[in-house]
Amino acid sequence: MSVALQSLIGIISLLAIAYAFSANRRAINWRIIGIGLVLHSGFCLLFSKVVVARHMLESFSAGFVHMLNFSGDGARFIFGDLANPGGKLAFIFAFNVLPILMFFSGLSALLYHFGILQRVVFGLAWLMKRTMKLSGPESLSVAANIFMGQSEAPLLVKPYISRMTRSELFCLMVGGMATLAGSVLAAYVSFLGGPNPVEQAKFATWLLLASLMNAPAAVIFAKIMMPEDDPEHMSSNRMDYDHGHQGHFINALVAGTVEGLKLAAIVAAVLMVCVSLIALINHLSQNWLGEMLGVNSWIRDSTGGAFSGLTLQYLFGQLCRPVAWLLGVPWNETLLVGSLLGQKVVVNEFIAYLDLGRMKEQGLLSAHSILISTFALSSFSNFSSVGICVAGIGAMAPGKQQTMAEIGMRALLAAVLAGLLTAAVGAIWLS
Fold this sequence. Notes:
Blueprint lengths: L2 H18 L9 H20 L1 H29 L13 H4 L1 H16 L2 H17 L3 H9 L13 H4 L4 H12 L4 H12 L3 H29 L23 H45 L2 H7 L9 H15 L7 H13 L2 H14 L4 H10 L6 H14 L4 H30 L1
Helix pairs in contact: 1-19, 2-3, 2-11, 2-19, 3-5, 3-11, 5-10, 5-12, 6-7, 7-9, 9-11, 9-19, 10-11, 10-16, 11-17, 11-19, 14-15, 15-16, 17-19, 18-19
């Protein structure tokens, strides 16, 4: 079976799953869904097949990678050889990745202060509002999530959240969980590209394109699973936003850097705890259950040593193997890609991208499967993000917090499906 046909089956399956979990199938506006699918594939084709657009994205990616080097300059000023990925201490996460998060957080704050980020967001929001007939706040929030985090993007539409319908709130949540922020995207480029600028530029291009495609994908699944059934009470048709220039730019830089420091500390703490818990679970499952069942040696032999025994990663792989196949992954590699998908949803995408980087270095996956995995993991859609959405957005509109808690798990499913759709479409057009 060809990759295109395999991925096409996957796309139909993903849409069917969303339809099965729709809160109101009769209210689905199929015009919005159709336009969303056209935009979704259109972005992929535009930036991969049209020479001018492709060169623009590649040039932007090269510039993005160049910016990573500047974060390294600051890290080496503070940490010396500890922050030198090519030095004798090799790649050290704390001194190479965490400074990237802080640098890009500060840079984003400056871009926001001078109104540059808002203008880019407004342009994309205008396109989605005109074509998909979304409300103004919906369009702005979904477009903003391409560049900003799931807690920061809703700030652009904070005055409207208390008046949003259930469908608008759902779209707001799905948009936040289905995309990536620029700061963490930079970290993933460093995971996958290593010290090689060419590889970094390639993965930066893929990740930027995936985040862009995930925006219309989020709307597609949001409007299938929670269609608008009360259009007369939508929050607003306007797209008002903060134009920046409030206070001195130094204040904006400091505030952004402090937020980046908080993000880096949270990421480091969560990763330490998650890796430790996974190691504990793997110790119990492999050394106790695996030995008792006598399956560890069989798993090692059958996977060519890719899995050491009955581990959490192996169980994730078996559970998500059919999903990986639907994305266009060859069956002999679906166990590894399925493992990444499971880790991404249950734990987080940081862990999954770290594991993908390891598989890439060890040559366990083909270039085709690496591409699909890179696209499929490019979102915040995991269980912890539901809590972040409910707490973060709920703090802006306490009266809507209960509603968001009720629809949180459904929003997570929609966000997961959005990321998988992007991977399946990418497999068709980019392979």
